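yo

u said u wanted the structure for the complex thing, so here. seqs first:
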Amino acid sequence: MASLITCPHCGTRPKEEFSIRGTALTRPHPAASEEDWHRYVYLRDNPKGRYQEYWHHAAGCRRWLVVDRDNVTHDVFSVTDAAPARGASE
Amino acid sequence: MTSYRLASAGSVNRGQPLTFTFDGKSYKGFEGDSLASALLANDQMLMGRSFKYHRPRGPVTAGSSEPNALMTIGSGARAEPNVRATVAELYDGLAAVSQNRWPSLAFDVGAVNGLLSPMLGAGFYYKTFMWPAALWEKLYEPVIRRAAGLGKLAMQADPDRYEKSWAHCDLLVIGSGPAGLMAALAAGRAGARVILADEGFRLGGSLLSESASVGGVSAADFASAMIEELEALPNVTLMPRATVFGWYDDMVFGAVERVQKHVGTPSPDLPMERLWRIAARRAILATGSEERPLVFGGNDKPGVMTASAMRTYANRYGVAAGGKVAIFTNGGSGYRTAADLVAAGVDVTAIIDARVQSADAVPGGVRVIRNGGVVGTKGRKRLEALIAERSGFQEQITCDALAMAGGWSPIVHLMCQRGAKPVWSDEAQAFLAPDVGSAFIAVGSAAGADTISTCLKEGATKAMMLARDLGFAAYEMNIPEVEGEYDPAFAPVWYVPGARDKAFVDFQNDVAVSDLGLAQREGFRHIEHTKRYTTAGMATDQGKLGNVATIGIVAGMRGVSPAEIGTTTFRPFYTPVSFGALAGTSRGEHAAPVRTSPLHDWAKKNGATFVEAGVWHRSAWFSREGEKGWRDSVDREVQNVRRNAGLCDVSTLGKIEIFGKGAAEFLNRIYCNNFLKLPVGKARYGLMLREDGMIFDDGTTSRFSEHHYVMTTTTAYAAEVMAHLEFASQTFWPDLDVRFVSVSDQWAQMSLAGPRARTIMSRVVEDDISDAAFPYLAAKTVTLRGGLKARLFRISFSGELAYELAVPAGYGEAVADAIMEAGRDEGICAYGVEALNVLRIEKGFITHSEIDGRTTPDDLGLGRMMALQKPDFIGKRMSTRFGLTAADRLQLVGLRPLEKLEEFSAGAHLLKEDATPSMANDQGWVSSTCHSPTLGHTIGLAMLRSGRERYGETIVVWDGLHGREVLAQVCPPVFVDPENRKLQG
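structre next:
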């Protein structure tokens, strides 16, 4: 895992300032199918390599971030604020 | 006792003698000595006993790779075992004792293992102590552990402080030998922020040990001049006594600085050690190379050491390793050692060169045996002679020290800690540093350079390259001339056949060549298997000396190149790091923060006993004179609340201020019940669900103005709820205009409950709080008598008429005092979380004992709160799944014992009468219990299959843990005031 995460708001910070929630999934529409909701709530890929996760800068700006990283090489490709990355609510 | 201190050589401070003890005996050394060099100077070659065979051992090295000279330094709580004497800096009053011997170092009973050594080969323990299995724990392991092993821990608390710190730099230079010094200076002159770290107590690395002259002065003087210039540069930080032990992601390096390990009386104002995390933009590995021992019979006799170690003892410390020294070499290092020793006046009896010929200069008068080998050694506690063999002819040569020069291995550990493997080079006959990218590069002999001048040049050039890469203007540097260099080239000799005694590859773990052969024969052929079967490379030195020989010998046995065998895995730490340094300040009571409520002192002076709840210290009960135990206090507090009134500290609840035009809509989506139309001035109980439909947390939220809400959460979930709100706001509905701030610590909050609560509260609050003006679930800002603004909520967790009053934290104690005073004639008492818990169980209110992540609102009887007509809220979609609405789900019920005196505990399971206890017959479990002083018997809340249909049924409360079965009647989960008359009174 990366030792340092570059928060788009606070700059480069040690990973201990962050907490990780897991895969950056998009919440389905409230009326989406049971199948979609089941997948969102319960099913996770366990990719080897690159993937995107929600990280919370809990000991910093308190923003939720999307960290795009490789869990094999530990490279971090980007850290973006989660809000603009997600669509507006319905 | 012979003195082995040379007349003049070395850079120890002869004007500053130091006194120290070893095994109780007093010795003298000099400032600048290592413990090992001072012992050698005093003719104390025997420094330890080996791990398994208890063989007498002396130092093999003069550095951090030392496998043998492990000692316990210090006494009492400061006794530190397994310190390498070769790197321990001598100080006045140092007390060292030897390890792994009984009764004494010179006479060790355990040495009998050496006689048994034919039986004790690799895998002996695995094969011998297999059965009977029962004996393993009781007999075999304790005996083996006592017989084997290293130093003993002091069983007292460490009296010293440790700390952790971050450092940031443009360039981290690891190692301060010729390459490291030049690198640091090149980058330092260019203006880069440089950290130069070295594990040694004196900077200079190999320059301190070499006899060549650099820039017209001795190598050591050259190093001093370089360090002086570096010290003058404000952008350069020098860190001696700092071992860089690990390389982590994103160019973060771990280092441990031994701040006061070399001090007789440590200052209480300084840490003993400091753990550094160094974030470096670029790094240079200038760790040098390790000289390999040669593997021949009896190569572990005290007095046998690497040639470079012998040069270090002579050139740096002014100590001769012996009076009559022989040298066994496969390259130039042996000849250089001979020359240095001869120059210092030491008698060199012979150079035994494994090669047929070489161009190395032979010092005058020294005999050279070419194409020869050492096949045996004589002597017990110190080498007395060696047996050299040449063309089948054996000869005994008298000597009291033997230098082994077996070639060089670049020290590349740090570069291999993140997955890259070192690369075998046939040309260098060594494993070289892997290419790990342009940010971290090896220079000097760590990169395979062979001479001081190459090291100097490479250090400068590569550092300039990195500095320029970072945008610094780096100018060419003059590379000083080196005179008197030698060529350290060597021809590999992995193993000298014909050994009469054991030929060791791993000194510390007593692994001999024969063990490696056994491992191959028995199928442990993969190098990682060979390592674990034989324990080669598994000791505290992690095979720094022996691993390459192990690989070379295994390659030879298998008839392949060492490249094919490969290395074992390199992991941090490079050398052992103390737990103290790793823990830093996080020990004892500082291991976790202590949170106390703003009403902590109020509770204390009212006689509270505190309980730790997570990091909180909460008032549990308030003992009074004559009460025999906590139950007496709790019963009294509960009864007093029900009869009169009580004041409880509820400041630990999470408190979150919520603002914004979108706050109402946001809360409506966060809670499963309706919040959109909550009027200003009202509080509402709310349930938050997880997306899977289970309850996440509960609490009240009050509307103070159109766009301002105050939320309370449970104590345990305060942080989680805050993060949950932020997540929902930022990722689900970023368009909703809503902001939050946690104010849990900013407000002191207290609950005043009981029939007299209004009377008491009205004495403190100026506003009209009659039932008409301030009914159940009212919430507003009020003015206290005296003018303080406070928040008053009419909410209850006890079932009584109750208020929660929140005041700015600093006023908490004064306000609580005022309420106690105002309630004195009404019979007010302070009550703690134990009474709070009894009151809520009696009333059937839920906590996280019931909200355990498996329960839905309906399971807890709160199904009507679900506002499914709302277009969306968290958890809505999954709540309607069949499994979550099935009629046979576990539902919250109350339990009362059939026999009043019988008790049961939370965690007990429920069974139908006459059913055998089994998972199939399980009907549910008890979530909360207490003794109800109001009812006079135990009551419980439980989750029971289809529970609400089963009121009146008799059920077995089965407690396998306590071996107890109690018959209980299922009842509604509200034991007190089910009509809420008191609550709304």
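The mean pLDDT of chain A is 91. The interface with chain B takes residues 1-4, 12, 14, 19, 21, 27-28, 30, 32, 34, 37, 40-42, 54, 56, 58, 62-64, 74, 76, 81-84, 86, 88-90 of chain A (CB under 8 Å).
cya
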